[in-house]
Amino acid sequence: MKLRHDVIKQLLKDGIIAIDYVKSKLNSADSLTKFMGRKLILQTSIKMDLRPIDS
After folding, report:
1. pLDDT of residue 9
2. 11: which of 16, 18, 26, 33 fits an S-S bond (Cβ 3.0–4.6 Å)?
3. Residue 22 gets which letter from DSSP?
4. To 5 degrees, how large is the angle CA 27–CA 14–CA 22?
């Protein structure tokens, strides 16, 4: 675990990767991993360019 932490820390320092904080309301992936209300699921689905299945 320490090795992974050190590698990530070095990649951040070198500017190779960046970590951005995303509020839960704006996180599109949350609808795939958490229980959310219908309205939030629809909003995040639109952001992911998902379309409803026509019945």
Report:
1. 93
2. 16
3. -
4. 10
